[in-house]
Design brief:
Shape: globular
Strand order of the largest sheet: 5-4-3-7-6
CATH superfamily: LytTr DNA-binding domain
Radius of gyration: 13 Å
Number of domains: 1
Largest sheet: 5 strands, antiparallel
Distance between the termini: 21 Å
Strand content: 35-45%
Number of helices: 2
Order of helices and strands: EEEEEHEEEEEH
Structural class: alpha+beta
Helix content: 10-25%
CATH class: Mainly Beta
């Protein structure tokens, strides 16, 4: 469980409930199935809080929980999550992504 403190609330979030994290300047948007939390930390700082081995950075601005990937498009280099969110995989991350998915 990680603690996420915003200006108005403190959230206690189970890592397995995080679909993905998205960089937004100096902030990170943490997407859960029911809400999005804007956190005043950059993506690298958020990743350092995640101990779960199911997270992979697919792009400079996206870290995804691979447990929520339902499809991967080889043509468009996108993953589609269980909530139908589409996220691009950078071509530089593609090889490591395939290795990561294979071993998980």
């Amino acid at each position: 469980m990680i603690k996420i403190r915003t200006q108005t609330k403190t959230y206690f979030v189970k890592e397995e409930n995080i679909l993905y994290c998205k960089a937004n300047g100096r902030y990170t948007i943490i997407k859960l199935s029911d809400i999005e939390i804007t956190y005043a930390k950059n993506l690298l700082e958020v990743e350092s809080k995640l101990s779960n081995k199911n997270f992979f950075r697919i792009h400079n601005s996206h870290t995804v929980n691979v447990e929520f990937i339902k499809e991967y498009s080889h043509r468009t280099f996108e993953v589609i999550l269980t909530d139908n969110t589409k996220l691009k995989i950078s071509k530089r991350k593609l090889s490591n992504f395939n290795k990561f998915i294979t071993k998980n």
